[in-house]
Amino acid sequence: MSAATKSVEGLYDCRDAFAKTLEALAEADDRVVAVVNDSVGSSKLGGFKKRWPERLVNVGIAEQNMVGVGAGLANGGRIPFVSCASCFLTGRALEQVKADVAYSNTNVKLCGQSPGIGYGELGPTHHSIEDLAWLRPLANLITIVPSDPWETAEAVRFAAAYEGPVFIRVSRYPVPALQHRIERIEPGKAEVMRDGDDVAILANGVMLHKALRAAEKLAEDGVSARVVNMAWMNPLDIETIVDAAATGAIVTVEEASVRGGLGGAVAETLALRRPVPMEMLGFPGFVPTGTVDFLFDHFGLTAAGIAAAARKAISRKGR
Amino acid sequence: MSLSTAPAPAPGADRIDMVRARALSIRRSAFTMVHEAQLGHPGGDFSAADILATLYFGVMRYDPKEPRHPDRDRFIMSKGHCTGAFYSVLAQAGFFPETQLKTYMQPLSMLNGHPNRNYLPGIETNTGPLGHGLPVAVGIAIAGKLSARTYRTFVLTGDGELQEGSNWEAAMAAGHHRLNRLTVIVDRNRLQQGARTEETNSLDPLDDKWRAFGFHVEMIDGHDHGALLDVLGADPAGRDKPLCVIANTIKGKGVSFMEDNVSWHHGVPTDEQFAQAMKELI
């Protein structure tokens, strides 16, 4: 549980942006409450707890109850941010997420902390690489995978203002603050971060900055790669995906299982609308132990790995 | 504020008689729905009918014209499969027309097999999978405490349903927060889908379990309208902990061939059985 905020390299833990934004929202609107499963520290909500102890509901280690209590608080007029390690929030309490939040269409904000392989060495019980595949079919549930601190803060602000269920993936892996072209996030709208015509790299979360670096590498070799930020998993920006397929080759990159997440969503879209060669980067199954950086290297989730996948997708054009 | 314990008994009638009449009417309505749909859970509808009648016609404050009034008392049907009785009491309480009950489980009906808050007014949360009602009720009660509102929160669970661990997560939280305006009612009919609870995964001593989790416990006859009115209607300000009412009931109560018979968990009647039941439900 390192508490790094901004390191000397200019890297950020998005949980800090999450917590800071939530505190600002709580200050402005007393309907905002937090619900946790003994996850005050891991959600960086120590400051929130200190300022509003009665508005931080700690149910203890009981995720099913945590999500149900969130739905009940929404019924009572509150805006609950239910914050917990993503593996337990989406795995242990999946039926509550389905029935009490998505199907009931309640005003609950689910914040999946340290998702993907954020807990590297702790292993697959603590990894949350399945969450996107589990949540993507749930109607009503807005699902956002922010890439950096600004986008995380925007997602939290959006969630508070939006009347309905939202899931936000809040990463702990240190990421740079990216240069965005937009001033506000727009629900269901993918952001083209970099233009390009030879291939399109569709990424989200902590993979986005690696995708941008991959595009720079490809440019050095004269390959023009578009990079699209697919932060919105639901609603999905179908038209921007179809536009990206006009490059003739697609690569998806996610800190998640390659089955059922971003890659799956894009593949479904392309198959129906505009089939083109596609490469999918992510994790093939349960992940072995290792540091997060080791695991990203091991599975090719690096700028070099993404660039190689892009070249492969390009090489398959017209076959 | 237009909330009231609706509606008042007719002049000369007392509350107990009114609740008794409503319970009978709920049973007749629910069984008619189940007979027409040839689907449903009539055994549990009948064990819960007196509890529902007491809550909606003797205890709870609500306004069917303003179903999401912030100060309304909340009721959560955690045993969400017993919609025959639940939809019947909601319709009789005025949340939607009783004529709509005819569409029960028909294609595209708002009267789904399990209740959906987005389809019908008066439903607080979508239930069906067991063990979901109490956690939501705990959240509602915490919200009320935070806002210093005086509404009460009631949740009706089955007894077999208490085998779901989520109930005990929620019970622990309710006890910890001393949610005195929360009431759990257990429809203790001692039968679950396939067999007796005590043969399947025993619950007794059930009162001790709830006490251990921080509840005040009352054990009553769940078909005694006077006892139900007394216990459920008591002012919660006199308690410093949540209340659990273990309502000892009979599955299929009111129809001789259905009482305490496990096959009526989701059994449906033939025309002859329906006619016989209607003769007994008077």
From TrEMBL, chain A:
Family the entry assigns: Belongs to the transketolase family.
A Pfam match: Transket_pyr
Species of origin: Pleomorphomonas diazotrophica
The protein's required cofactors: thiamine diphosphate
Highest classification ranks of the organism: Bacteria, Pseudomonadati, Pseudomonadota, Alphaproteobacteria, Hyphomicrobiales
SMART domains found in the cross-reference section: Transket_pyr
Keyword annotations of the record: Thiamine pyrophosphate
Occurrences of domain Transketolase-like pyrimidine-binding (ranges): 12-177
Membrane-crossing residue ranges in chain numbering: none
Protein name: Transketolase
Automatic annotation (TrEMBL), chain B:
Lineage per the UniProt record: Bacteria, Pseudomonadati, Pseudomonadota, Alphaproteobacteria, Hyphomicrobiales
InterPro entries hit by this protein: THDP-binding, Transketolase_N
Protein family (similarity comment): Belongs to the transketolase family.
Cofactor(s), names only, from the UniProt record: thiamine diphosphate
Domain spans labelled Transketolase N-terminal: 25-279
Listed name of the protein: Transketolase
A UniProt-annotated Pfam family: Transketolase_N
Organism: Pleomorphomonas diazotrophica
Keyword annotations: Thiamine pyrophosphate
